[in-house]
């Protein structure tokens, strides 16, 4: 897979627009994250090195851009058109990471959504949109999502979309200052021959 064929890309569904994260998004992104600090804190990745920390915004974007250039990540912002706005507002972030080509053709997906927009179908629609893109446009075979067992809203997302529960992973990732257990969910392209987005949108209309 040639790098230029997978990134940058923008995906749209109704009022939702998933687009590449940019340096100039810093002010708006920081405001959204600050407003959601308590909401997101229990699920935040942390650095197990006592002397270490997480990158600031500029370093985060630079790292994500490097990964995208290497065809190992797709760093999206989730944005939403609203009445009166000149451009879609940031309502979350979704990153496809750890993309492996060759005989694996797989990736991992992670996301967060503004608490004020939670429960409106933004997360499952975004996950379905990106997973379909990865399966159909990029030819990936498997998508994986790892979720804390206590994270009810994220568990509902994978349940709605039909991701298969592959079991428990003790102390899988360093989250909010400690090694945390996760449940692993996955789908392969053969399991969703019609894609995820169409059936998900149909279920919302029924």
TrEMBL record:
<keyword id="KW-0012">Acyltransferase</keyword>
<keyword id="KW-0808">Transferase</keyword>
<dbReference type="InterPro" id="IPR051531">
    <property type="entry name" value="N-acetyltransferase"/>
</dbReference>
<feature type="domain" description="N-acetyltransferase">
    <location>
        <begin position="16"/>
        <end position="181"/>
    </location>
</feature>
<dbReference type="GO" id="GO:0005737">
    <property type="term" value="C:cytoplasm"/>
</dbReference>
<dbReference type="GO" id="GO:0008999">
    <property type="term" value="F:protein-N-terminal-alanine acetyltransferase activity"/>
</dbReference>
<comment type="similarity">
    <text>Belongs to the acetyltransferase family. RimJ subfamily.</text>
</comment>
<dbReference type="InterPro" id="IPR016181">
    <property type="entry name" value="Acyl_CoA_acyltransferase"/>
</dbReference>
<protein>
    <submittedName>
        <fullName>Ribosomal-protein-alanine N-acetyltransferase</fullName>
        <ecNumber>2.3.1.267</ecNumber>
    </submittedName>
</protein>
<dbReference type="Pfam" id="PF13302">
    <property type="entry name" value="Acetyltransf_3"/>
</dbReference>
<dbReference type="InterPro" id="IPR000182">
    <property type="entry name" value="GNAT_dom"/>
</dbReference>
């Amino acid at each position: 897979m040639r790098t230029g064929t997978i990134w940058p890309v923008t995906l749209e569904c109704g009022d939702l627009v998933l687009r590449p994260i940019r340096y100039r998004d810093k002010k708006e992104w920081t405001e959204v994250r600050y407003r959601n600090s308590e909401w997101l804190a229990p699920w935040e990745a942390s650095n197990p090195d006592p002397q270490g920390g997480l990158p600031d915004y500029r370093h985060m974007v630079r790292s994500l851009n490097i990964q995208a250039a290497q065809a190992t990540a797709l760093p999206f912002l989730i944005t939403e058109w609203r009445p009166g706005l000149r451009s879609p507002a940031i309502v979350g972030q979704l990153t496809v990471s750890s993309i492996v080509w060759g005989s694996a053709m797989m990736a991992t997906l992670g996301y967060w959504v503004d608490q004020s927009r939670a429960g409106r179908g933004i997360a499952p629609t975004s996950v379905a949109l990106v997973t379909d893109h990865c399966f159909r446009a990029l030819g990936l075979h498997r998508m994986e999502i790892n979720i804390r067992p206590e994270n009810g809203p994220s568990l509902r997302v994978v349940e709605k979309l039909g991701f298969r529960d592959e079991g428990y992973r003790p102390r899988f990732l360093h989250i909010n200052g400690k090694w945390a257990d996760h449940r692993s969910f996955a789908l392969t392209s053969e399991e969703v021959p019609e894609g995820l987005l169409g059936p998900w949108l149909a279920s919302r209309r029924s």
